[in-house]
Design goal:
Number of domains: 1
Helix content: 25-40%
Strand content: 15-25%
Mean pLDDT: 82
Largest sheet: 6 strands, antiparallel
Structural class: alpha+beta
Number of helices: 12
Strand order of the largest sheet: 9-10-3-5-4-14
């Protein structure tokens, strides 16, 4: 959770490294994408995601106006882009809203275990575009896990038990590679109904590595059968047929490259991701510890070693936030003086890698492929937590802690259909940062929404009076990308956390 703060400070949308890269290289990237395959360029929804991000948080694109009834102080809050791809601000807002919804209104006061399923490279590529197939694979996975819990409860004498889960489909890996995988937050046990109709929860035993391996073997076998039935089995050359390249050929090329951590276009087309490691320990990093409750079979990987015990709300919140986190963290990005993008990894890799290096258009390729298609759900409910479950109303936290329905609505118009209806902007800010965003900075009284300013002439008149920029900065014109043959040329201006840059060396191979 974020630390406590004592005042609301509007964000500066144009100050971050991510905004700078998108603004200065978007047109170049769009022109470069048009050269891939059929020359159709980026799909419309991807380009709209980029252009909406460039307007996110700018008062010149529209804002909500709040006023204190006591002293007349005004506050302007810029509209957000409500993007679902890579916008850190909108992604953090959605993460917090769904976390509040799940912990307060969905999960009962029972242990919740996280089951994480990773898939082979060819399956990741197929699921990145075919959302119906993705939902089917997630269903196969959750049915195997819920069946495992049901069978374990039956062996301990609890017959007719049912469990539930919330599955979050993540599309990105640590290095922004295309890695479609599933974080399933599963009730760690089953509910049974007695003769009087009352529900009783029976907690499951922690699964062993052998039990996780058996679940993974079942998942892998069923997923392969599912792919064969839907015409996605391996051909005679050992590759899965490309069924979505016709719909978005340029994006398909980028996706295929991003799955393998390679560049799809530009001067480094086909080259592997450039990585940097601390060579003081021989480039090996810390020794790798075998995780608990873990199994790996033929490209499929399953981990179930993390659990939030019953009653540990903060731990459950951290688990939900981790599963729902946005792909890009602004504080881990840096742009060097020669316009290379450096991403600091959350955790050191087994070979010692701590940073990865991108060309600007290579970085935008990664953002493009992790952007989900419109109108698809990446948070899915199964078992007892499914909307049509007959037991759902009896186990969810009806009447628990909820966000304030009377607080001001989120600036920027109506809330998205995927957002919980009780998660208002002001309530989320108070839950996350510990202060009331609607408290007047001058007198402390509450502020209320008085208008949504969307007409350009009104926007310009107000901003001109306040001395703010009247227009959103346009993207920079397309230009030739910088060429670099030296793999470490981009780190010349990077402020490394070590005193001597000679202690850093490029890593040889990237772990999958």
């Amino acid at each position: 959770m974020a630390g406590q703060s004592d005042a609301y400070r509007p964000r500066r949308p144009g100050a971050g490294a991510l905004y700078r890269v998108v603004r200065e290289h978007l047109e170049t990237f769009c022109a470069q994408a048009a050269s891939l395959r059929g020359g159709e360029g980026l799909p419309r929804f991807v380009e709209e995601e980029f252009r909406a991000y460039l307007r996110c948080g700018w008062l010149a694109a529209g804002f909500a106006r709040f006023r204190c009834a006591a002293c007349g102080t005004d506050r302007l809050v810029a509209f957000s882009c409500k993007g679902r791809g890579f916008c850190p601000s909108c992604g953090a807002r959605r993460m917090t809203a769904l976390t509040v919804h799940l912990t307060d209104d969905v999960f009962p006061a029972v242990p919740v275990r996280q089951w994480v399923l990773s898939l082979p490279h060819r399956v990741r590529y197929l699921l990145a575009w075919d959302h119906d197939l993705c939902r089917a694979v997630v269903g196969v996975f959750l049915r195997a896990v819920l069946g495992f819990l049901r069978d374990g409860a039956r062996a301990r004498g609890s017959v007719g038990g049912r469990s539930g889960a919330v599955a979050v489909v993540q599309r990105f890996g640590a290095a922004l590679n295309l890695n479609v995988h599933v974080h399933a937050l599963v009730l760690d046990g089953v509910f049974t109904r007695d003769a009087t109709g009352a529900l009783t929860f029976h907690e499951a035993e922690p699964p062993s590595d052998e039990e996780v391996g058996r679940v993974l073997e079942t998942v892998g076998r069923r997923v392969e059968r599912l792919l064969d039935r839907r015409g996605h089995g391996l051909d005679e050359d050992g590759f899965a047929p490309d069924h979505w390249a016709e719909d978005a050929p340029a994006l398909a090329s980028m996706a295929a490259a991003a799955v393998l951590s390679r560049a799809a276009s530009g001067p480094r087309a086909g080259a592997r991701l450039r990585r940097w490691a601390d060579s003081r320990d021989g480039g090996q990093g810390e020794p790798v510890r075998a995780p608990r409750c873990h199994a790996h079979r033929e490209g499929f990987d399953l981990h179930a070693g993390i659990v939030a015990p019953a009653g540990h709300t903060r731990r459950l919140e951290r688990l939900c936030r981790y599963a729902l986190r946005p792909p890009v963290a602004e504080e881990r990005l840096q742009v060097t003086s020669d316009e290379h993008v450096v991403l600091r990894l959350r955790h050191r890799w087994s070979d010692g890698t701590t940073h990865v290096l991108f060309e600007p258009t290579e970085f935008l390729e990664r953002l493009a492929v992790i952007t989900p298609r419109p109108r698809i759900n990446l948070v899915l409910y199964y078992g007892l937590l499914a909307p049509r479950s007959s037991w759902r109303n009896a186990i969810v936290r009806a009447g628990g802690r909820r966000c304030d329905r009377t607080a001001a609505r989120s600036p920027g118009g109506a809330a998205s259909a995927s957002d919980p209806p009780t998660a208002s902007w002001a309530a989320l800010m108070r839950r996350t940062f510990g202060f009331d965003v609607l408290a007047c900075p001058r007198c402390g009284h509450g502020m209320r929404l008085i208008a949504l300013i969307e007409r350009p002439e009104v926007i310009r008149r107000i901003l001109r009076h306040l001395g703010h920029p009247l227009e959103v900065p346009p993207p920079a014109p397309a230009r030739a990308p910088p060429f670099s043959d030296d793999a470490d040329a981009g780190c010349s201006a990077l402020r490394l956390p070590f005193a001597d840059e000679a202690e850093w060396a490029p890593a040889e191979e990237e772990p999958c």
